[in-house]
């Protein structure tokens, strides 16, 4: 799910492009928030939606420990609608990965926090900005706790900030509600997409689950990104459901969050959709493939995890589904849904 240290390694994932220039060499883009007079804390986690959501407890710990600071979250621009739902964050610093220097003036940031990982790339990018104080894991030039493999992501980042004097509760992961309403209140949300092939449960299995639940009178909605719309349409077609049930590629992120927040049930691989269901405590059936449940599983609540860890290969970036995911059957998903009252 993540790059660099958050995928059970402390090494940066290789960049798609060579790193360029230092922070001193580049002009600050217009998208960088202007200073507002407060000291600033920058939390780097330039990853995806699920990565943001498991960092919420740590961010709340930082908010309580540094109430006078303006907290900037460095991540991709498309996350802004959900960043705005997290009371611990004041603004987004648009940051697309680690290939380029962070878009902020040298010396402007008071406290830099490495929530991205513990690899050379993230440490280097934070080192370039000339922050007065740096919080991260122990590494050359950095003080902090030793990186521990196999720790749940919520616990990892909560314990990191706690070590630096910002106590955090790993279960403090709830999200604020969007200002917009759900496009389909009470839907059974079937999220058919995933960032990598290793997490793609077969089309025909999603279709079989959707067909059964729709036949029982539940309103099924298929979700995914714009790039996953063709897959969602294929699932709907195989399930015998109309194109109108396919919301993939049509919902802005805040509407997607509202859909999940008002869902009757969420069926998804281990993706941002599943993490949103956790953040809103909505009943969910989460299908795990390459990622260990012990590191990425949902918090206590109305959530069922299905996988077979005994056959897990664990290659997040594989183009083919992990055997642990393929071991999950349609009947298992339907039984889990029934256990949540959806049959």
Automatic annotation (TrEMBL):
Q: Which residues cross the membrane?
A: none
- One GO molecular-function entry: ADP-heptose-lipopolysaccharide heptosyltransferase activity
Q: Which domain of life is it from?
A: Bacteria
| One Pfam family named in its UniProt record | Glyco_transf_9
Question: Which Gene Ontology terms of cellular component type are present?
Answer: cytosol
Asked whether the UniProt record includes Nuclease among its keywords, one would answer no
Q: What is this protein called?
A: Glycosyltransferase family 9 protein
Q: Which organism is it from?
A: Arthrobacter echini
Q: Any keyword Transferase?
A: yes
């Amino acid at each position: 799910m993540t790059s660099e240290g958050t995928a059970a390694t402390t090494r940066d994932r290789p960049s798609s492009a060579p790193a360029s220039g230092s922070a001193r060499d580049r002009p600050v883009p217009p998208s960088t928030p202007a200073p507002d007079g407060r000291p600033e804390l920058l939390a780097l986690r330039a990853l995806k939606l699920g990565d943001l959501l498991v960092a919420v407890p740590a961010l709340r710990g930082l908010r309580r420990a540094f109430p006078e600071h303006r907290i900037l979250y460095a991540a991709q621009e498309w996350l802004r609608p959900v960043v705005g739902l997290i009371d611990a964050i004041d603004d987004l610093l648009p940051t697309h990965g680690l290939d380029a220097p962070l878009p902020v003036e040298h010396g402007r940031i008071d406290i830099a926090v490495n929530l991205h990982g513990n690899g050379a790339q993230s440490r280097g990018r934070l080192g370039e900005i000339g922050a007065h104080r740096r919080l991260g894991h122990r590494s050359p030039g950095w003080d902090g706790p030793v990186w521990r493999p196999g720790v749940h992501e919520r616990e990892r980042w909560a314990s990191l900030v706690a070590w630096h004097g910002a106590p955090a509760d790993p279960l403090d992961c709830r999200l604020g509600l969007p200002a917009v309403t759900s496009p389909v209140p009470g839907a059974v949300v079937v999220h058919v997409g995933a960032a990598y092939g290793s997490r793609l449960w077969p089309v025909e299995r999603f279709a079989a689950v959707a067909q059964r639940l729709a036949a029982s009178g539940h309103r099924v909605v298929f979700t995914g990104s714009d790039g996953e719309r063709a897959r969602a349409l294929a699932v709907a077609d195989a399930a015998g459901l109309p194109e109108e049930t396919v919301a993939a590629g049509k919902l802005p992120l805040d509407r997607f969050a509202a859909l999940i927040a008002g869902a009757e049930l969420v069926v998804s691989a281990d993706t941002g959709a599943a993490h949103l269901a956790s953040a809103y405590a909505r009943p969910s059936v989460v299908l795990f493939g390459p990622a260990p449940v012990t590191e990425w599983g949902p918090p206590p609540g109305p959530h069922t995890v299905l996988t077979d860890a005994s056959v897990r290969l664990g290659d997040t970036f594989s183009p083919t589904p992990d055997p642990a995911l393929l071991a999950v059957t349609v009947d298992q998903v339907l039984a889990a849904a029934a256990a949540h009252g959806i049959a």
